[in-house]
Amino acid sequence: MRIWVGIDDTDSPEGMCTTYLGILCMEEIQKAGYEVIGFPRLIRLNPTIPFKTRGNGAVSFLVEAPDFEHVREIVDGVIQENSCLSHENTNPGVVFVRDEISILDYLTKFSLKAVKDVVSLDEAHFIIGKFMIPHLKYKKGRGLIGALAAVGYEDKDYTYEILAYRKPENFGKPRSYDKDTFFRADELYYPKIWDTVDWHNRIVVCVPNGPDPVLYGIRGSDFEAILKATEILETEEIDRKMMFITNQSTDAHIIDEREAKNVSNHHSYSLTGVVVEKPEVIRGGHVFFTISTGFGMIKCAAFEPTKQFRDIVMKLVRGDRIRVFGSVKKNTINLEKMEIIELVRSKEANPICPVCGKRMESSGKNQPFRCRRCGTKSTKKHLMPLKREIEEGFYEVPPCARRHLSKPLVRMEGIKKHVFR
Ligand code: ATP
Q1: End-to-end distance of the chain based on CA atoms, in angstroms?
Q2: pTM assigned to the model
Q3: Hey, what CATH topology would domain 159-246 get?
Q4: Phi and psi, residue 126, nearest 5°
């Protein structure tokens, strides 16, 4: 029988990674003589969930095995031995789901909710009960949410990421790699791969810094290009590699304003609005401004890590019509990208005297303008062209500030875009 295995919440800020643990499970399942079918899947869920360790990722893969029981025993052994069970915020959950349309369709709805919304552990337990899904639950078992969502996720849009892992003896030590080879890989294979490096900020963005086992992850749309790119990279010895199919870089978390009933914290949106307050920079380099939308006034933020994206934001003026994309936290939408729909191109000024050509002066509130020289009066303001240093189109944060689920502009066709690379 074909069984989907979904796993989540196995790591902690001190180490491990659910993708790595998933691979260990797949290896043990194969050693037992069962087949793992196709690519494993790395599904990113709602990026605003407070319990997440890092990127709110969950893993699933498909297995051909005679029954659930032995697969469950194998996975249990791997989790007991390798997950960060002693960490208070690690609450692993694993599900074993029959590869049947009736169950998977139901799970797809749950999964889309887990990507865009907040779901309760009770909802996960309800599904497990309804379909009598064999599962493993450790401590609070909150990982059951992500585990079910990783099995049920279904969308037309998907990308790939190859993850390379370190030798266990190197976990926690500084990562050793030749930076230039990553820039070279990007030079050769971009835009089939993206977010490998950030040229402007001179950072290799695909190598994490934490104590987890990941050495690097190369993302892209074409897995052959990804594989070729990895051949160029010079790094410390690699222990394992695995290609994942993923919902990263697809904007799956974004709720379009046409579907939204309101705008609330812990959700991500695309919203059109008009700038009502000029952007201001505060200490620490964070930029804030407000737009007026169909949902009321919304505060927008471009935080310091979004680097040169803030320079574009700072050039917005009152009256500009824009569309913002990002997650709402603390009643503020954290910008991931924006579309400038229409810029204000003129500003009001005192009129020019039609008789002597001098600029007229205001003679007080609700009073007409008056020419000092010849006394001519006028009530009409003059429109002066406003020079703008930005133009209409899409702008995005640079690769060093990209969130896993954000769709980079390089993946968006038929739009006018300004890519930071
Ligand atoms: P890991 O690599 O372990 O998966 P992570 O950054 O992905 O690390 P987790 O440790 O998995 O974070 O923690 C996220 C927790 O939030 C999991 O228990 C998951 O089941 C749960 N979760 C995910 N999405 C939602 C959601 N939309 N609503 C409620 N809980 C969620």
Answers
A1: 46
A2: 0.93
A3: Glycinamide Ribonucleotide Synthetase; Chain A, domain 4 (3.90.600)
A4: -60, -45
